[in-house]
Write the structure tokens for this entry.
Amino acid sequence: MSRRPYEPPAQSVVGQIVDAVLMLGLVVVTLYLPLLLGLAGSGATTTAYDNPSWETLKQNPTMAAQWEKLGFTPDSAAAIIGARFDYSVSWMAFAVTALVIVVYFVAMLRWSDKEYREVIAERFDDGERPSS
């Protein structure tokens, strides 16, 4: 029983260009949208020090010596030391992202099921069973 080889659907050059431009646009939007909406980089906290000294900045003598070698005083280093990034994770956002990825993967498998079956049948279903 001979099957005809699987032939994927043909796409025109214009279709390929539209697909490429669409993918590029989606990548740009995906990368810049969080920045434009103020959702990225907003986790910074700043601690203000009234009378900064190396002790109040929680710098040991070795650390203070390195700051001084770089030309910093406790007053000038306080702004740098006081700036912290908040690395907290939003578990709800993480769960939504994971759910979207899983739903997308399952949807793509379901939509592509016919094509996958044709390719698998062409490549591996030649009527012969492998010997063990």
Q: What stands out?
A: The chain has a mean pLDDT of 86. The chain is about 55% helix and 5% strand. Residues 43-88 form one domain. The first strand starts at residue 44 and ends at 46.
